[in-house]
Amino acid sequence: MRLFIAIELPEQARNALVGLRCDIPGARWVPREQIHLTLSFLGDVDDDGVTRLTNRLSRIHVPAFTLRFGESGCFPDRRRPKVLWVGLEHELRLLDLAAKVHVAVKDCGIELEERPFSPHITLARIKMPKPGEADIFLDRHIQKKLPSLAVREFILFQSRLTPEGAIHTPVRSFPLAA
Ligand code: 2AM
Question: I need a surface site. Which of 35, 91, 109, 127 has the fewest CB within 10 A?
Answer without folding.
Answer: 127
